[in-house]
């Protein structure tokens, strides 16, 4: 199959979507993103990577980083994490506070902000540098040593991050953080503010298609752990739009408010799409439309 042509075609189809959405503006540095930016990359099992549009342009990966923090925390620390965070869809926006009190400080899943803060805390406990662990993993898997935190974006979120600070303190009040709140928030903002391209993320997401094997052939996760992460991505990776994403795209996937979506093609590879215009749930409008077109044309959905 001509993957290059395939990507061009599905992007053309996506451009026919009736709406474009708007870049996130609650993190002021992200509001400046160009809603016309649009790129897509597909990395195959053997490490070939194909791209179209702005596929090599770095963007703010935001919540896509949560896929990597979860994988690294499970790889380093095993199943103990699941005592501190659940794995059910929340049915609420990614930054919601409402379930935390009734559920005694145990976040519903690792991808809503509350859950990601607990995962970041766990990774910090295990490695001493949660943001650094994510950065090094992305560099190694993509072969791109320039990947790192955009400090302007991290600082912008830190200044406006009242909700995340509230979530972190609330979780800490239930004894579910091991590190000081300020350190957890700093590492969380730093890994969310990682700048990487569709090319980089498609390559870095391959380990989930390869049942836990890294680019160099070493094992990050057991086959069963990789399956479980894919399952949580499918049910929780796009927040309260996860049902719609499964319906339209039918792949495990993780979105971010920078406009990136990374999806796993089990047994085939990984695909990343980026366009900053978001829908009401915080998912890229063109990104979801392109993945919808991709699985419609190829039949590569997991269903
Ligand atoms: O904590 C936040 O709000 C951002 N750093 C990440 C949120 C995000 O990307 C949600 N995804 N769609």
How would you explain this protein's 3D organization?
It holds the Pfam family Glutaminase. InterPro entries: Beta-lactam/transpept-like, Glutaminase. It comes from Kitasatospora cystarginea. Homotetramer. By secondary structure, this protein is of the alpha+beta class. 46% of the residues lie in helices and 11% in strands. It is built from 13 helices and eight strands. The chain has helices at 3-15, 65-77, 98-102, 113-127, 130-142, 151-160, 162-173, 181-192, 198-204, 206-209, 223-236, 242-248, 285-298; strands at residues 39-44, 49-53, 59-60, 148-149, 194-196, 253-255, 260-265, 269-274. Helix 1 (3-15) crosses helix 13 (285-298) and helix 2 (65-77) packs antiparallel against helix 11 (223-236). The longest helix has 15 residues, at 113-127.
SSE topology sketch:
Blueprint: H1 3-15, E1 39-44, E2 49-53, E3 59-60, H2 65-77, H3 98-102, H4 113-127, H5 130-142, E4 148-149, H6 151-160, H7 162-173, H8 181-192, E5 194-196, H9 198-204, H10 206-209, H11 223-236, H12 242-248, E6 253-255, E7 260-265, E8 269-274, H13 285-298
Antiparallel strand pairs: 1-2, 1-8, 3-5, 4-5, 6-7, 7-8
Bound molecules: 6-diazenyl-5-OXO-L-norleucine.
EC number: 3.5.1.2
Subunit structure: Homotetramer.
Enzyme class: hydrolase
């Amino acid at each position: 199959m001509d993957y290059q042509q395939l990507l061009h075609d599905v992007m053309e189809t996506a451009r026919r979507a009736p709406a474009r959405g708007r870049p996130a503006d609650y993190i002021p540095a992200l509001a400046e993103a160009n809603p016309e930016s649009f790129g897509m990359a597909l990395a195959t099992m053997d490490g070939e990577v194909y791209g179209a549009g702005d596929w090599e342009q770095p963007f703010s990966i935001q919540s896509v980083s949560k896929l990597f923090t979860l994988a690294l925390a499970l790889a380093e620390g095993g199943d103990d994490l699941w005592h501190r965070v659940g794995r059910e869809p929340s049915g609420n926006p990614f930054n919601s506070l409402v379930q935390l009190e009734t559920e005694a400080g145990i976040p519903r899943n690792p991808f809503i902000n509350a859950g990601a803060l607990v995962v970041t805390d766990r990774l910090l406990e295990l490695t001493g540098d949660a943001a650094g662990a994510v950065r090094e993993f992305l560099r190694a898997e993509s072969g791109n040593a320039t990947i790192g935190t955009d400090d302007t974006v991290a600082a912008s979120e830190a200044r406006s991050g009242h909700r995340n600070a509230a979530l972190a303190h609330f979780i800490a009040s239930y004894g579910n953080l091991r590190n000081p709140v300020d350190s957890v928030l700093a590492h969380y903002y730093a890994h969310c503010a990682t700048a990487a391209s569709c090319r980089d993320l498609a390559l870095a997401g391959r380990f989930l298609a390869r049942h836990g094997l890294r680019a160099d052939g070493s094992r990050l996760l057991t086959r069963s752990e990789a399956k479980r992460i894919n399952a949580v991505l499918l049910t929780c990776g796009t927040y309260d739009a996860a049902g719609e994403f499964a319906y339209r795209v039918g792949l495990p996937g993780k979105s971010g408010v920078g406009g990136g979506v990374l999806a796993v093609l089990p047994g085939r590879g990984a695909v990343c799409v980026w366009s900053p215009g978001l829908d009401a749930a915080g998912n890229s409008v063109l990104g979801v439309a392109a993945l919808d077109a991709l699985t419609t044309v190829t039949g590569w959905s997991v269903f």
